[in-house]
User: Which sequence fits this backbone?
């Protein structure tokens, strides 16, 4: 998986996020989506963490918050954030 593809996926998630979300909630939603997607693609946690911080410029705190979540936990976070947009 190359950096350009991963950044494109991240940008697509951000653009598709509901406009009613705050920037912080949009970032949290995007981080959870990206972590889940990149895990499905077979990337290890360290590569995902490095991508979020070095390439996507998320805060280390945000990356650390979700990096060890299971797929179910990530989906729950995403659903909770989307509920807040309604």
Assistant:
């Amino acid at each position: 998986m190359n950096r350009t593809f991963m950044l494109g996926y991240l940008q697509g998630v951000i653009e598709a996020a509901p406009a009613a979300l705050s920037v912080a909630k949009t970032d949290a939603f995007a981080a959870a989506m990206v972590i889940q997607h990149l895990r499905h693609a077979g990337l290890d946690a360290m590569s995902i963490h490095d991508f979020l911080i070095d390439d996507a410029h998320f805060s280390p705190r945000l990356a650390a918050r979700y990096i060890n979540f299971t797929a179910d936990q990530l989906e729950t976070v995403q659903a909770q954030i989307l509920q807040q947009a309604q």
Q: What stands out?
A: The radius of gyration is 12 Å. Residues 23-40 form the longest helix (18 residues). The helical segments are 3-16, 23-40, 45-55, 60-66, 71-84.
